[in-house]
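Lecture 7 notes: from sequence to structure.

We start with a single chain of 374 residues. Read the sequence below before looking at the structure.
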Amino acid sequence: MDPRLYKAAARFRKVNLIKEDADDIEEVDDLIKECADLIKRVKEENPNLLLGVTPMGNTVFHLAAKVGDWDLVEEVYDEQCKSLLAMTNSKGDTALHIAARSGHLHMVNFLVEKSISASTSIDVEQGGKQTNYILKIHNEGNNTVLHEALRYDITILLVEKKPELIKEQDIYGRTALHYVASYYEYSCVEVAKLLLEKDSSVAYIQDKDDRSPLHFAAGKGYQDISREIIAKYPDTIDMVDKRGQNAFHVCIGKAHLWVLRYLTKDVRDDEVLNQKDNDGNTPLHLAVISGNPDLVECMLEKKGRVDTDTMNKDNFTPMDLAIRGENASKQEIQVYKHLRDAGAKIGIVEPFNDKDWDIVNALKDAEDKEFFLW
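Now the structure, written as tokens:
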């Protein structure tokens, strides 16, 4: 990069620091004009100098995008700058990727408008095959600008301009909705609503491990986003990943009780409640294996609908897995009691025999301990 351009870029951050102080507006305007004039002189001397990059591959637009200097970029932008929009740095980021990731709405808006314009002109030149291609450029993480923009204000701008971005998948096969489902912020719930309203198919897109956005939301314990997905598209709960697991398996595996309660509240399909994964484990098996009495109790609330006696590939019923050692914990005993009260049975692998006696005594010991604790 030409040293004069780098010098101008070094002043970008100073401009933004001064912008925070409303009393220094005049100084901001002077600095912007100074930087803009410097960039313009370089451009007039030799337009190709504008294509210079830092050792990390950043153009002057990348550096401006980091600090959100959209007014400076707007000041110097002309047709000669068009090629800068599609230039990527060493990480595959365009200036638009960086602006979106940094949350600079004005910069994103400006770059999106110019990218659409530039893509359209290239589209005409190349016979209609490149429409809006700049907005669809993937960085080294295979992310489009929409993957980088999880803020509501930026996302709404992008999906209005380029709705096809909603279904774009990254290197892992994940869409923006997969990532939104992985974060817990109010704005992410609003972003999820927006994406689902704009394109219903995004709720059904699975990544390379066949995980849907609902798998992510349930696995992270995010009830609000899980609710948004299921409320609009209830059949997404039927979807299974490469392990054969649905949202019930995933949220139980991560011990997210509140999400499980929501999932069980309105589910109408018994097959989903009793879905076996690749190991033959139903959600109830996994709840028992977790040793969490609350998860087990929640699953057993669906009386007559949850199969308490089904066997996994090792021929274990949930009851077989309740007590797994001679010295049962209080939680394991509580899990056993929930299953016993629900009428669950022992399977064919291990006859009860002495184990039955051990459990009875363990129950008595636990009740005695509980009595003394109270």
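Residues 122-131, 351-355, 369-374 have pLDDT under 50 and may be disordered. Keep this in mind for problem set 3.
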